[in-house]
Amino acid sequence: MKRVLSGVKPTGKMTLGNYLGSFRNFSKFQDENDVFIFVADLHALTLPIDSKLLHSTTYDIISFYLASGLDPKKTTLFRQSDVYEVSVLDTILINYIYMGELSRMIQFKEKSKAMNQSKVGVGLFTYPVLMACDIFLYDTDLVPVGEDQNQHVELAHDIARRFNSRYKGEYIKLPTSYTPKVGKRIMSLSDPLHKMSKSDDPNQSKGVIYLQDDEKTIRKKIMSAVTDSDSIVKYDPVNKPGISNLLTIYSAFKNIEISQAEHEFNNSNYGTFKKAVADACLEELLPFKAKFEEYRKNEAYLNEIFASGAKKASKVAQPVLERIMKVVGLR
User: Fold this and answer.
1) CB 223 within 8 A of CB 275
2) Which of 13, 198, 240, 274 is catalytic?
3) Among 2, 28, 74, 111, which one carries the catalytic annotation?
4) SS3 per-residue string spanning 267-324
5) For residue 120, what pLDDT is reported?
6) pTM for this one?
7) Quick one: which of 244, 272, 262 has its CA closest to 185?
8) Distance, C-alpha 230 to centroid of its chain
9) How far apart are CA 101 and CA 96, in angstroms?
10) 76 in helix, strand or coil?
11) I need a surface site. Which of 57, 127, 148, 249 has the fewest CB within 10 A?
12) pLDDT tens digit string along 105-127?
């Protein structure tokens, strides 16, 4: 049985991209694997965030997990900050990575570029190390991640190899990353050259479908999606990025290959195609949203899940941390 680990940061409003890339996929692992899914609240602190928003969104995430079919009896669901071992491991392993390696991380470059350089926190720079510690702490075999996180998993491999080489043993397990083929990168409906992001301003972004949007809003956003002056439904990300993005969304919800979706709409106009995309989204998202709202109302139950999950996670994390502390001479 493989141990699978992944998590979502409680920052911003969750989007269609988060659903297709994360929430929707997690439950597929829980019947045949030992699954650990967490709310990455410590990671949320790497950029300025309102404390009330962080608290609220943390409970949103656990509710989304449950609505997506994750079962607390099968999957260890927990809050990152409840497992203190990860912070100790981070303090240790941050000494096994070089500043040059961290400065080459694409996410750091992109996010720091948009900020006042004098206000870029150290946590943003060292974010990949904490992510590596999340992975190592549970002797993880498989890490489902979005396409934009693959570089961080590769860096985790570098840290593990360096550590194991220095101490001449297999003390840190090297994980394998997994990115779903269909729906792995969802783009903005209003600007299909850029990723649909939860960091976009909810008040300004017409191209982002938020999981808490109502039916009318979702349908309107899809029907207003930017396409092109052509009328052919064809997958061509370079010349037809808008249509290609809608094909990606449709095929993901229908669990079919993009080529099948192309064939299905071979003689359709854009209006007919967009309506079908909206229908496919809503058929799945509306029941998901209803479940989310039911779970979200009961914070007492969510706290029980967090407490139980933290105990299970710590039970696995403690011996791993002790092993590494002993190797480096702290025990």
Assistant:
1) yes
2) 198
3) 111
4) CCCHHHHHHHHHHHHHHHHHHHHHHHHHHHCCHHHHHHHHHHHHHHHHHHHHHHHHHH
5) 72
6) 0.91
7) 244
8) 34
9) 11
10) strand
11) 148
12) 777 767 766 666 656 778 788 88
Q: For position 183, what pLDDT does the model report?
A: 57
Examine the residue annotation and report whether 119 is marked as an active-site residue of this protein: no
pLDDT, residue 202, reads 54
Q: Measured between alpha carbons, how far is 176 from 264 in angstroms, rounded to an integer?
A: 35
- State phi, psi for 136 to the nearest 5 degrees: -70, -35
Active-site residue, selected from the candidate residues 9, 13, 195, 274: 195
Q: Where are the beta strands (DSSP E) in the chain?
A: 3-8, 34-39, 75-79, 142-144, 176-178
Main-chain dihedrals φ then ψ at residue 47, nearest 5 degrees: -125, 150
Task: Locate 131 and state its tokens.
Answer: 């992510």
Closest CA relative to residue 145, chosen from 302, 43, 54, 21: 21
Is residue 274 among the annotated active site residues?
Answer: no
Provide φ and ψ at 289, rounded to 5°.
Answer: -65, -40
195 is annotated as an active-site residue: yes
Torsion sign (Cα): 91, 139, 10, 101: positive
Give the residue carrying structure tokens 């992975």.
135
